[in-house]
Amino acid sequence: LQMLEQQVVGGEQAKNKDLKEKHKRRKKYADERRMQLVAALQQSDEDSGDWVLLNVYDSIQEEVQAKSKLLEKLRSAETEIKDLQSEFELEKIDYLGTIRRLERDLMLFQQLLDQVQSLVRRDCNYSNLERIKRESVWDEETGCWKIPEPVIQKTRLP
C-alpha cells in the first residue's frame, strides 16, 4: 500500500531528480522576479506606478480619467523639454555673440599693437612683442597679466 502511495503521490516521475531541480529553479526564479517587482514598486511613487503595472478599472470613466492624467503629464513634460531647449538655444546664441565680439576685440588690439610697435624705440624691451608675451605671467590671485616693466637699454661705446 505504501509503495502504491509513493508511486501515485507525485505521479510517475516522483523520483525524477532532474524534474525536481527544474521545479526548484523555476520557483527560485519566480521568487526573485516577485522580489524585483516589489522593490520596483517600493522605489516608485504612486504616480509612476502607472508605468509598472497594468491598472484594472471599474468603469470606462475611471480609465478615461487615469489616461487623461497621464496624457496631461506627458504634455507638461513635452512643454518643459521645449522650454529647456529654447533656453539652451538662447544661451548658445549669447555665447556665440560673446565669442564673436571677443574675436573682433582681439583683432583690434593685435592691429593696434602692430601699428604701435614701429613707434617704440629699438633700445626698449617693448620693441619685441614676442619677447614681452614670453615674459608675461598670468596672476591667478589678481586675475590679470603681470607684464615686465619697460626698460631702455643704453649701450655705451668704449
Q: Would you summarize the structure shown here?
A:
The protein is mainly alpha-helical and 158 residues long. The chain has helices at 2-8, 17-43, 49-52, 60-117, 129-135, and strands at residues 137-139, 144-146.
Notes on the structure:
- The protein has 158 residues and is mainly alpha-helical.
- Among the domains are: 16-90; 121-152, no CATH class.
- Helix content is 65%, strand content 4%.
- The chain has helices at residues 2-8, 17-43, 49-52, 60-117, 129-135; strands at residues 137-139, 144-146.
- Strands 1-2 form a two-stranded antiparallel ribbon.
- A hairpin with a 4-residue loop joins strand 1 (137-139) and strand 2.
- 0% of the residues are buried.
- The model has no long low-confidence stretch (mean pLDDT 81).
